[in-house]
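Issue 218. Parser rejects a valid record. Input:
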Amino acid sequence: MENNMAHKTKYIVKLSKDEREKLNKIVKTGRVAASKRQRSQIYLYADEGPNGPSLSDLKIADKLDLSVLTIKRARQRLIEKGLEAALERPPRKNGPTPKKLDAEQEAKLVSLACVEPPEGRSRWTLRLLSDRMVALDYVDSICHETVRQVLKKKKLNLGNAKIWCIAPQNHPAFVCAMEDILSVYQRDYSTENPLVCMDETNKQLTKETRNSIPANSNHVEYYDTEYQRNGTANLFMFFNPIEGKRRVDVTGSRTAEEWAHQIKQLVDIDYPDAKKITLVMDNLNTHVGASLYKTFKPQEARRILDKVDFHYTPKHGSWLNMAEIEFSILGRECLDRRIEDKVMLQKEVAAWTNDRNSKKSKIIWRFKNEEVRIKLKRLYPLLE
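Output the parser choked on:
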């Protein structure tokens, strides 16, 4: 039946052995235009020679997710122009389309897109930019599609501002804390004095209100926009970047007592043979020695503190903490989804942690004080 339908077409494709080998090579290589690879695949499917499958236009269109008309036109071009010409993109009848904007006008458009939008608008839109270009007499007329193409070429994305920790300029307290952390990272590593980076974050737990629709060959997984909040959980990260070892604990809340128990575990269980643990962390109000005295008897609190050397990242300097980098990876690889309860969260985080630890995934820190004094010169006080 399939062959009969194929022979009803006006343009019959019959390829020689050499032509099939050439087309197969084009299909398998990654260094050709997508349109050329697509046409090669059409001709291979349509081939009614001894080694061809002789598929109908409808069948080819279904396999390649194309229209039947596209298949018919490809057949016609092969028969009328030959294989070499059929594989190349047809030349434009009227030559290349002239540019809508010259270099100066493009520069004005980019400049306009980078300034604050007009009053009453939270951000620029394509139509708003095109209207403003005309209002400012930069152009006589311009469509929003031209604006989109220019911004795409310049890699500008409207409305995608990033939230960023911007360090203050001329700030001696910041650079002092920053250089302290960088100096710690440059020390020779010793098992008697291990380096550990610590951070904590929280995760919103959410229950599904309806069963999701599983993914299949035709669509991705669908899940409902509605969900039920089910509390939050706190996560502690203790990461040794040199050994590629981390511990991630899920707890119920973020308190001074929780943190104190985590530090006790760090000293007594994670590194019981260490003489002094170098601990890098942010300056959250619970990350202080007082939390240990609040939780344990004085002798116990002092014993734990004597085995830990605290080093604090500066405000707006979270990027200096390698535990934050690990949390970022954990978020992308494991937590970027709905997790309904603490039990499920503990199970998923444990699986991720075991996998990372088995691979001894490390972070090699290369940023040093000598470089930072050049690249971040604006942060340092100006001295005569």
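Fixed in the parser; the record now loads. Confidence is low (pLDDT under 50) at residues 1-7.
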